[in-house]
Write a structure and sequence with these properties.
Length: about 300
């Protein structure tokens, strides 16, 4: 097996990003008319742009704990709600697809006059990031892959996502929260940091039924992006919760093995929503990686 690099995760790593230093940083948010949809975005800070794409069935608020630390270090953090999620609204005729999600992200960058950015995706945001790379590699300064996968969905996973779509259609978006929270957060977090579970639950409830169905379909039918990995030429950081049961660490190791020069950081005590559950460690890892590659 090809040797991979892993940044040491020690208590001191997070010290530089533990404070909410983004207070006073320029922030703008609102709705943009993109490809027929109303896309909600938040942009905070100045400097090198970082566009972060959320997973299923969440919103840009997944990254609420990342904005301040990254903006305080001199970055501009842009988050969006994919159409049908959070505050974004999709037209009835186009609730969402892999291509549409990618075009929406590019449309937001265009309207914010951002020619290039570090682009990162969590879970479903990973396949969207790969689609963005295939269609517009010139827009990337770097890439961040967070608890995600390049492989297509196997038979069991396809049926899992189809079940999610059926449950959302029958019982509403809020019904997905119990199905997802057990994988998003570790048992320890769910027991002792119940506010974290409630925060993610409230995000899940914001999605539309059409959005839930569209996203589940994207995950069930996503293309094989493993061949894409060999084509990635920008600095790439892979963040992975050690306790992730949706896309376990083995998949992130495979990402690292196939993306030349990429860096893998395993985050202990974190599950699928590692970027939220262990935000201090994730923030410190992003900053260390970005500085190492002069992405500033």
């Amino acid at each position: 097996m090809k040797q991979y690099r892993m940044l040491a995760l020690v208590a001191g790593l997070a010290a530089g990003s533990a404070h909410a230093g983004g207070a006073g940083m320029p922030m703008q948010q609102g709705m943009l008319n993109v490809n027929g949809a109303q896309i909600h975005y938040v942009s905070e800070g100045t400097g090198t742009p970082i566009l972060l794409l959320h997973g299923y069935p969440l919103s840009g608020e997944l990254f609420a704990r990342n904005r301040d630390a990254l903006t305080a270090a001199g970055y501009r953090v842009i988050t969006i709600d994919h159409r049908g999620y959070g505050q974004s609204v999709a037209p009835a005729g186009d609730p969402g697809s892999l291509s549409t999600y990618a075009k929406d992200a590019l449309g937001v960058l265009d309207q914010l006059n951002i020619p290039k950015a570090i682009i990162g995706g969590m879970s479903m945001g990973g396949p969207i990031t790969f689609e963005l790379w295939r269609t517009a590699p010139q827009r990337f300064l770097g890439m961040i892959l967070i608890d995600t996968i390049a492989n297509p969905a196997g038979v069991v996973e396809q049926h899992l996502w189809k079940g999610m779509a059926q449950k959302a259609s029958t019982f509403g978006p809020q019904s997905l929260a119990p199905e997802l929270l057990k994988d998003m957060l570790t048992g320890d977090t769910r027991l002792h940091r119940m506010a974290d579970a409630m925060f993610l639950t409230n995000i899940v409830k914001q999605a539309s039924v059409a959005g839930d169905v569209a996203g589940a379909t994207v995950l069930a039918t996503r293309p094989d992006s493993v061949p894409t990995l060999k084509t990635i030429t920008v600095p790439t950081l892979i963040l992975e919760g050690v306790e992730d049961t949706v896309y376990p660490p083995e998949f992130s190791v495979k990402l690292q093995q196939n993306i030349a020069g990429s860096t893998l950081v395993l985050i202990p005590g974190a599950a699928h929503a590692a970027i939220f559950e262990k935000a201090d460690i994730a923030n410190a890892a992003i900053l260390k990686w970005a500085r190492a590659h002069d992405l500033h």
